[in-house]
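WARN  no MSA supplied for this record, continuing single-sequence
INFO  ligand: 2-acetamido-2-deoxy-beta-D-glucopyranose
INFO  echoing inputs
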Amino acid sequence: MKVLRALGAVSVAPLLLFLATGAAGSPAPAPRQRFGSSNGPIRGVNLGGLFVLEPWITPSLFKQWEGGGDRRVVDEWTYCSALGKDECRARLTKHWGSWVTESDIRTLAWLGLNHIRIPIGYWAFTVKDDEPYVQGQLPFLETILGWAKKHNLNAILDLHGVPGSQNGFDNSGKFGRIGWQTSQENIDRSLQAVEAIAAVAARHADTVDAIEIVNEPANWGLSMDGVLDFYKAAYQRFRAIAPGTIMVIHDAFLPPTEWERFNVAGWENVILDTHNYHVFVKDRLTMSRDDHLAATCQDAASVRRFNTHLWTITGEWSLAVTDCARWLNGFGKGARWDGSLDWEMHGPVYPGATCAGQSNITAWDQKTRIFFRQFAEAQMDAYEAGSGWFFWNFRTEDADDWNYIKLATHGLIPVPPSNRVYSRYSLATNWWDIQLKSQWCHE
Ligand SMILES: *[C@@H]1O[C@H](CO)[C@@H](O)[C@H](O)[C@H]1NC(C)=O
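INFO  complex generated
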């Protein structure tokens, strides 16, 4: 079933969106219906590591630079600049044709998912002479969208990297500086990329129901006024090309209270995307297993609060409770868990903490397996308090705690996702009517 069909009934009120004032003192709005509600929550995975390389997802592509050698190769930008355009194009073309296959898409549908989120960098649409990136992604994107349609999956296209980098993460395509807002040219080229993505969406209107216009803009390195201006400009640009397509905006890592100040409550045809990881900040990373489960209840509360204003999805989450996946924190870098990454932790999370076996499903004992299954169910409960979720990632080469297909086929993620054995959700027959409450939450 296509969520888009359900949206056919939603009246499209384009520019009203940004005229809303959300005047102070107006009564609190009722919770929204969920996006695509007649078809149940969004349940999906990200196709990460495909059009935007991340060393930890596909370490085989980066192995040649391991252990000394050329330490400059840390992201797609430096990958291509080290190899040169011809060799980079040859390797990436091979990668684009093999990292996601029709068999994978069929598997995702068989696992009970109804959506995929497809990250792609601006350079698939616009490259300047002095940029090392190569092109050729689009025919592969078109092919994947064809498979998605065939196997009844809907898609969100996600602009994951913009010129200058919106967050300095390797997964923006360019590690280091947050330079997106340093020139008008960067903004203009981002808008061109949004328009190009909208054209793809328009050609696949029965499969692509939404476009995320920029992933994870970092509030700490950007002007939020500038980010909001970009959201408004992007909305107008792509709605002209792909009317009926929903705009997804990322929360820029800001809590619901901040978004309430931005007066977004009247925005229409907009989904807010929030990401939930447990391994990148100290207070989550050092939690006990029980605390990880309990923390999902706080996240559910946050999703509910967001969801009173805008449809809300959790566009990225995983089962990781350590940051031990090799190169997760950047190519060649260590982990906070065992003290081998010395950013904010000073030493390991507890004396003798080791990364050995943490991302290796074969090494997990029965207690650990049960915990991961509970953690999966607790998070699904939490994110279905909004419009649903996308796990990161559909697959990884090595990092099993981030590998949906592997976790699901080993029984650590429910198949289909509604098949919950630990959560009370499994007792619910109509997810739409009930106020989901996880057994881990004491409210
Ligand atoms: C994963 O764990 C198993 C069992 O402990 C071990 O035999 C295997 O070598 C490990 N794999 C990796 C890649 O470390």
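Residues 41-427 form a domain with the TIM Barrel fold (CATH 3.20.20.80).
INFO  checksum written, moving to next record
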